[in-house]
Every structure is written in C-alpha cells, then in structure tokens.
Automatic annotation (TrEMBL):
Family indicated by similarity: Belongs to the LipB family.
Biochemical pathway: Protein modification; protein lipoylation via endogenous pathway; protein N(6)-(lipoyl)lysine from octanoyl-[acyl-carrier-protein]: step 1/2
Pfam families assigned: LplA-B_cat (PF21948)
InterPro entries (UniProt xref): aa-tRNA-synth_II/BPL/LPL (IPR045864), BPL_LPL_catalytic (IPR004143), Octanoyltransferase (IPR000544), Octanoyltransferase_CS (IPR020605)
PROSITE patterns with a match to the protein in the record: BPL_LPL_CATALYTIC, LIPB
A single GO BP: protein lipoylation
Keywords: Acyltransferase, Cytoplasm, Transferase
Additional comment: In the reaction, the free carboxyl group of octanoic acid is attached via an amide linkage to the epsilon-amino group of a specific lysine residue of lipoyl domains of lipoate-dependent enzymes.
GO cellular component, one term: cytoplasm
Stretches assigned to the BPL/LPL catalytic domain: 32-214
UniProt GO MF annotations: lipoyl(octanoyl) transferase activity
Annotated protein name in UniProt: Octanoyltransferase
Protein's organism: Halanaerobium polyolivorans
Length: 219
C-alpha cells in the first residue's frame, strides 16, 4: 500500500517553535485531520537532551554556551544529548505507524536506511553499528536519530550532518558515546554540497524506504 505524504520545508526555525509545530501536527495526525507529514528544518545552534540523557554530558559551562550562542533544551524524545545547528538537515516525520508497521525498532532501522541510501548516492559506504542507533561512516556518526510516539504516531526524528560546525560537538559527549567521533558530508567529500541537492535526495530515499507518495511539498 502506498501511503500519502505531505512535506513542509520550514527553512531555519528555532528548535522550540519547531517542537510546538510538531505537537500541533501530531495532534492533527492522531485525529486523522492531516496525512503523514515530513517536516524539514535547520535550527540555530542548540543542544537537546533526550529521555536517557543528562546535562552531565555537557563539557563546558553555561557562561561558555551563552557566549557561543548555543541554547540547551530537555526534550521527550529517546536518546541522550545531541547538537543541532546551521548546516545540519533535521527531519521530523509525523507518521501514523498503523499505516506502516507498529514497531519502533523497524522505524529506527528504516530511518537509518534512508540516510545509508542517501550517502550511497554520494558513493559513501555508511553503516549501522550494533547496539547504537544512527548512521556511521567508520567510527564517526553522520546521522543522529531520536524518536517519540504517541498513539502510534511518530514525532521527533533525525539530524543529518551536511556541513555543521563540528567543533560544537566537542562541547558535549554526543549521544553519551565517548569512544566515537562525528563527521559531515562536506568533511567526507572535501567539498561543499548544496542543501537543496541533499534535500532532494533525502526525499527520494524517504519515499522509497517508506513506500510513500508525495502529494504536496511546501517550501
């Protein structure tokens, strides 16, 4: 069965505003007032802490973060602490899993598959690491994933490192993992890649993995 998908490209939007929009969309999707929706966004610098994380994984002081212009929010997604910022493509899929598969492990593996396929489009061999959520190139993470579900409708999602300031990851213990690094598409390729090109490939692979048909795309 092909499921219908709306896409909204929000551009640059503050994290908390995007979160409030997610909650609005979540409520509407639960009530079947909208179709499945994929939100695409870029955030100003922010650290978000998931349900299994803590502020102990922040390596710098609050004053340092204030001077660097990086905000910190605790959130109800799964996972530990991660960074969002300019040069990172974040997706928040609002999906009714009753129309896909009512299985969170399947959802996480499917998100990973989207980005593994996207990186393959750039001739990059990305993979999973047993016991760790996300997408990796060697021992460096390029896509962080953290989800939440309410009444089998998903929210929160994935953050793909296109060309973010990788130094900002050094101020935290990313995802609470001490023995792995972080990378980006720009770093791996050694060249700049246009955001629109990556978003186009992201949508193509998302549609394929989830067997969906885009019925509307708002920019």
């Amino acid at each position: 069965m092909t499921v219908k998908l709306n896409i909204k490209n929000l551009g640059i939007l503050e994290h908390q505003k995007a979160y409030q929009l997610q909650l609005e969309m979540l409520k509407k999707r639960i009530a079947n007032q909208i179709e499945d929706t994929l939100l695409i966004v870029e955030h100003p610098p922010v650290y978000t802490i998931g349900t299994s994380g803590s502020r102990e994984n922040i390596r710098v002081s609050s004053d340092f973060l204030n001077e660097a212009g990086i905000k910190v929010y605790e959130t109800n997604r799964g996972g530990d602490i991660t960074y969002h910022g300019p040069g990172q493509i974040v997706i928040y899929p609002i999906l009714n899993l009753k129309n896909h598969k009512k299985d969170l492990h399947w959802l996480l593996r499917s998100y990973e598959e989207v980005f593994i396929k996207l990186l393959k489009d750039f001739a990059i061999d990305a993979q999973r690491i047993d016991g760790l959520t996300g997408v990796w190139v060697g021992n460096e993470k390029i896509t962080a994933i953290g989800v939440a579900v309410r009444r089998w409708v998903s929210y929160h999602g994935c953050a793909f490192n296109l060309s973010p300031n990788l130094e900002h990851f050094s101020y935290i213990v990313p995802c609470g993992i001490t023995d792995k690094g972080v990378t980006s598409l720009e770093k791996l390729l050694g060249r700049k890649v246009e955001t629109d090109q990556v978003i186009e490939l992201l949508i193509k692979n998302f549609k394929e993995v989830f067997a969906m048909e885009v019925i509307n795309y708002e920019k």
